[in-house]
Amino acid sequence: MTKITIAIDGYSACGKSTLAKALASKLGYAYVDSGAMYRCVTLYALRKGVIKDHSFQENEILKLLDEIHLSFKFNTSTKSSETFLNGENVEKDIRQMVVSENVSKVSAIHDVRVKMIAIQRDLGKNRGIVMDGRDIGTNVFPDAELKLFMTADTDIRTQRRFDEFSSKGQHISFNDVKLNLIQRDHEDTHRKENPLTQAKDAIVLDNTDLTREQQLEYVIKLISDLTLNVE
Ligand code: DC
User: Fold this and answer.
1) How many helices (H) and strands (E) does the chain have?
2) Nearest Cα to 129, choosing from 114, 144, 113?
3) Distance (Å, rounded) from C-alpha 26 to C-alpha 181?
4) Mean predicted confidence (pLDDT) in 114-132
5) How far is the centre of ligand 1, averaged over its atoms, from the C-alpha of 29 (Å)?
6) Quick check: 131 and 6 in contact, CB under 8 A?
7) What CATH number is given to the structural domain containing 157?
8) Is the distance from the beta carbon of residue 12 to the nearest atom of ligand 1 less than 6 Å?
9) How many other C-beta atoms can be found within 10 angstroms of the C-beta atom of residue 166?
10) How far is the CA of 34 from the centre of ligand 1 (A)?
11) Cβ(138) to ligand 1 under 6 A?
12) What is the pLDDT of residues 151-165, one digit of tens each?
């Protein structure tokens, strides 16, 4: 059975990783959350005191890059891939609001992107991968057989992210969550290098009114229509 590459891009908190994980599990593919990599660099810079009050010197971040080693392991009990920074499981820490507030600026740095993209391409070199992010279909895997561009209503996205924070005991107001999404979308779509844009050959998936199951069913149908064997 030929394995393909599935690239999922889109706005913040529109369910890219939920769909990517479900697809990977259904197809027996690897799942890679490329945003987690940029979050790791941001977390490391925060821990090292290089980012203070939402500002940093680019060259200070660059000095840290060689100290950052990323890896991913599949957790069989949660059935999900977890992110490790220098051997430490940081899956929870990288989702903190303070990381979300700084990650777009960190991800706009040229050398940070060069390093992350090299890792992403290496992880995908044998296909059989679902990767989500902002520039996967446009830049990381321009030859991906299936490209999805995801979007959803801003209030729905905010509610989903707000619920996620609440379930983890992080109490952030609905408005702060919403402002962060809007700000990140703006920065991610307006940066100079590899901004978030819809690839010409991407299929738009607006999941505002779709359940997770409907969304998965829709994409599995798309894959079948591509006459690819996904059994
Ligand atoms: O998917 P996420 O929200 O965890 O991503 C965090 C940030 O990382 C996002 O706001 C922009 C950046 N990012 C990127 O620049 N390129 C990617 N391929 C993935 C994420």
Assistant:
1) 8, 8
2) 144
3) 29
4) 96
5) 21
6) yes
7) 3.40.50.300
8) yes
9) 13
10) 7
11) no
12) 999 999 999 999 999
